[in-house]
Amino acid sequence: MAITGSVTIRSLRLLELFTPAAPRLTLSDLSRKSGYPLSTVHRLTSDLIEWGALERDSSGRFTVGLKLWEIASLAPRGTMLRELAMPVMEDLSQITRENVQLGICEGTEVVFVERIAGQKAVPVHTRVGGRFPLTASGIGLALLAYMPADVQDQVLAGPIEKFTDRTVTDPVVLRRTLAEIRRSEVAISDRQVTLDAVSVAAPIFERPGTAIAAVSLVVSAEGASVNALVPLVRAAGRTISRALRPRPPT
């Protein structure tokens, strides 16, 4: 990686190197992954530690600092949506005992902003703050179905990532799927991400036809009663949508 950009940009690029698979990194790790000299990394990490964006554990490795999470949690798109959606998500979790997820679109990916783990439910590979392609998950498909045509064209032009042998990667089939989602207001991802899980998702509308988020249930593929889940998830999406719309003055 070339040493380009302002000090701020270079600092942010260091923070991007921390992932769920690599939450703790040494100075050498950061230098190797970024391509920056050790001296540059040392200077940048010192500033990030002083501000609170990074912390150093007892072994000397760097971790993301709590202050960074505090600032990120104020992002308005996620905060207001989560506050309005949580009561509905909790009800859905109590009724089904399954995993409930909430996601928004960022570029051509889903960003998961909330998740409630179901009791003894199938394990999921998503996490709050994590990203995932739009083309495979229930939430991603529910969002993609309501995106402008040029965005859909960009996503479907590929490459489309394949996760299992059931992942749909044919753009023609995906377009038919998106049309059906717009008709039914429900997206079903049947073992497209993992072979043990089915996702049923519904869009959340800021206004008619404009989906800003989606809510989903992720259940075990074995014995999943999708037809029984569809009305529950659709109702959850519509309830959150109504909560998002401004109320007329009294």
From TrEMBL:
The lineage of its organism: Bacteria, Bacillati, Actinomycetota, Actinomycetes, Mycobacteriales. The keyword Transcription regulation applies. It comes from Rhodococcus jostii. PROSITE patterns: HTH_ICLR, ICLR_ED. Residues 5-66 form the HTH iclR-type domain. Residues 67-246 form the IclR-ED domain. One of its GO terms (biological process) is negative regulation of DNA-templated transcription. This is DNA-binding transcriptional regulator, IclR family. Keywords: DNA-binding, Transcription, Transcription regulation. GO terms for molecular function: DNA binding; DNA-binding transcription factor activity.
